[in-house]
Amino acid sequence: MPVLALDIGGTKLAAAVVTAAGQVLAERMEATKSSSSPAEILDTLFAMAGEVNRRAALGWPELAGVGVSFGGPMDFPSGRTVTCHHLEGWQDFPLRQAVGARVGRPVVVDNDANAAALGEATFGAARSKPYVLYLTVSTGIGGGIVLGGRVHRGANSLAGEIGHTLVAPEGPVCTCSRRGCLEAVASGPAIATAARQALEAGEPSALASIPRSQLTAREVAAAAASDALAARVMSRAGEYLGLAIAGAVNLLNPSIVVVGGGVSEAGEALFRPLREAVARHAVPESARGLAIAAGALGQRGALLGAAALALTDQYQAW
Which of 69, 216, 223, 243 could form a disulfide with 302 if both were Cys (CB 3.0 to 4.6 A apart)? Predict the structure, then answer.
């Protein structure tokens, strides 16, 4: 039986009907209205869910379950959100209960990084790999760990927060208020900020033709093949990512590291220095046979991860 997958993110909402093989039978995405309350967002999301169910010619009883990916930390056993840095009103919200009341089907909810990690392990770049470390590198940096086909969440459902690994003790202040986190030096906004600072210091670059307020990591990555400033900024971000990944490799000994999120689309400008840093800093025995790959699911990562949650035996905490 297919499942319903729902994704609640800071910039987009998504709903899809997905088969056990990962085939998307029907899908709908639209922008998140950041001013909306949780109830309003759920109203919108379930209007979308009703549409994809109709397009897939399915009713609620014909769904095996519902998986929900949420863009913020979750308390997995209770199914309640902890908070959300991009949307208001989601502190300690009973998300699993609210979704279950609407659908009358089994529901599992998790944060978007854990969902995407399981999605890549089930349908994507880490398929058939038993030990997976996943990073999403975009507006922020998150992580997920899959061990033996199951998400490892830790004592407080907060395992995998690699974005807040200390990599630059004297570096910039992070969104978490601490200084020098990976997210503060290698996320999309951090890459754009580093490029702007170099331009303001007078370094020559083709990026100077782009208004500072419109300069993003995407433009920096696109210029990296031919522009020295852009290449240096991307290389530095890759080195920081590699440093954090090396520490995680030493600790977890994964069989594959998958890097997803928008910044991962930078290609070798990011992955070459990342791999070199992992090779320098990881214990050789821990890194033996390690694969490092870009995510294969793209913008569908968290959505297909939500489907994977509903398709696996992740219901043990109900």
Answer: 69
